[in-house]
Amino acid sequence: MYLPLIFLVFIYCLAQPSHQQMTECKGDFCSNEVPQRPHCSKSPPCFRMIPEQIPGRRYTHVVFRFATIDPRTFKVSAGNDAGDGIQRVSGVKFSQAVIKVWVAFGGWEFNDEGPTRTTFSSLAASAENTTTFLDSLVSMMNRYRFDGVDIDWEFPTANDRGGRPEDYKNQVEFMSRLRSRMKDVKKGVSVVIPATDRYLKGFDLKSLEPHVDWFNLMNFDLHGSWDILDKSTGPWVKSHTNMTEIQTALDQLWRSDISPTKVTMGMSFYGRSFTLTDPSCHYLGCRISSGGNPGECSKTVGVLHHEEIERIMRQNHLEPTLHPEHAVKTVSWGNQWVSFDDADTWRLKRDIARSQCIGSFAVRALNHENDKESNIEALSLALDHKQMEAPNFSTTGQQGNVWRKPAPQQCRWSSCFEG
Ligand SMILES: *[C@@H]1O[C@H](CO)[C@@H](O)[C@H](O)[C@H]1NC(C)=O
Ligand SMILES: *[C@@H]1O[C@H](CO)[C@@H](O)[C@H](O)[C@H]1NC(C)=O
Ligand SMILES: *[C@@H]1O[C@H](CO)[C@@H](O)[C@H](O)[C@H]1NC(C)=O
């Protein structure tokens, strides 16, 4: 049986749930662009991690986001923007023997208005097209030696996301076929699920559970500038990650009797920012007019990397506010406001996750890292993870002391979900 040995899943490029900025992750390692290395100019150096720099012995899994599905033929391909990224990510296994490399399909943009909006719906609706998809997927996975596949359908049944009511049932059938095909070739399967109620209800969680190794719960991007046009949320300052809201999603999982060993807790390496309508109103619930100004390194409206947030706080002598109940930090300057995670909030989230028997954590995204690898360092400390042992090749015949996940913290199943 395939057991999830994961502590950390690295999600490769930031999914960009915003209609305004569709090209975000293309500048990073999903393109042909020569990555910008640190340099000595006046502007702050913007570190861009390339696949060859993925920190050693920190991650158990790396997920390449995204390969794509042709909306007409339902065959998979590396995608136009991937360049040699896909090849280089799969090459990480050469330098880090213990890492598993997975490939992801979908993401927010995939279901935006455009040619691929209904691709998942049509794929799941048709046995014939599912077969075409699976055949081409297996051949891609063999070619790049991928160890698993992550399905990020955002979101089944949601009519504002191109979904149809029948997605609810079709997704289960689709995942069941995907699972059995992946079993044949000894590869893993995961599904991304949202932490927002209205999208989560499009997933038949209990029926999906047997067909996945785990669910990747998206604990980030709960709010952003896309709220402005959304009647159910509105143009108000809200944190993009918030344990109170995440707990609602977790409760939904537990009500559906999902095993916590099949859930990864998402942790973000970036903040989401807003431009305030009135700088004097800079609290939760104040009005926003747009996403925040792009960072010098993020170069994306509404997104700031942790390093940029730190720099802004230093320059403006700011102290962020910790919201202990919601496990998030926020800070405001001028007409800007941002919410983010750090070592303190990761620790809070860890405690809550572990109290509910979740032992696996996922990161979005590894490439939002600085050259000192401060994010993964701080997160590892917060999660009390030591670096995995390097393989010891000095023994003959046997594989060395390859890192193994220690037994999960003992949680008595009987007591985990009572109440
Ligand atoms: C399956 O794909 C074909 C094209 O390859 C398309 O004509 C057909 O409508 C698809 N089936 C469904 C149910 O979407
Ligand atoms: C977290 O979410 C709750 C429920 O939506 C909300 O009342 C609270 O203000 C939020 N806190 C932060 C810091 O965003
Ligand atoms: C590697 O394995 C050999 C043989 O078992 C052992 O003697 C050695 O101490 C190990 N090295 C490390 C760094 O653990």
UniProtKB/TrEMBL annotation:
GO terms for molecular function: chitin binding; endochitinase activity. One of its GO terms (biological process) is chitin catabolic process. The keyword Hydrolase applies. It is an enzyme of class 3 (hydrolase). It is found in: Secreted. Pfam families: Glyco_hydro_18 (PF00704). InterPro entries: Chitinase_II/V-like_cat, Chitinase_insertion_sf, GH, Glyco_hydro18_cat, Glyco_hydro_18_chit_AS, Glycosyl_Hydrlase_18. Its EC number is 3.2.1.14. The keyword Hydrolase applies. Keywords: Carbohydrate metabolism, Chitin degradation, Glycosidase, Hydrolase, Polysaccharide degradation, Secreted, Signal. Belongs to the glycosyl hydrolase 18 family. Chitinase class V subfamily. This is chitinase. It comes from Clonostachys chloroleuca.
